Amino acid sequence: MLYCMPAKWLDLLITYDSLEAEMIKDVLESGGIDVVLQSFKITPYPVNIGKIGEIKVMVKEEDKEIAEEVLRKFIEREKADEQQ
Predict the structure, then answer these.
(1) Of 26, 28, 76, 82, most Cβ neighbours within 10 A?
(2) Number of structural domains in the chain
(3) pLDDT in single tens digits along all 84 residues of the chain
(4) 3-state class of 49 per DSSP?
(5) In-domain check, residue 39
(6) What gap in Å lies between CA 30 and CA 27, rounded to an integer?
(7) In which domain, by residue range, is 41 found?
(8) Could you tell me if residue 67 is inside a domain?
(9) Are 58 and 11 contacting, i.e. CB atoms less than 8 angstroms apart?
């Protein structure tokens, strides 16, 4: 009998900006990396106090290194574009 262990998800980063979280998710997914956004925000109440405002960008344990590299390159490109 073949048994597959469920993937372990790790925090890649934590942000308080939902637009930033979605943008990072899109970048990582375009590179073939599965992403989960976890948030405890209550939509009608845009409160960003402590854990309530956190949005965790999570990736599978086996994808963490490549996700960090993709994210690093994305940030470098964004900074270069801002300087132009």
Answers:
(1) 28
(2) 1
(3) 556 667 799 999 999 888 999 999 999 999 899 999 998 766 666 655 666 778 999 999 999 999 999 999 988 988 888 887
(4) coil
(5) yes
(6) 5
(7) 9-83
(8) yes
(9) yes
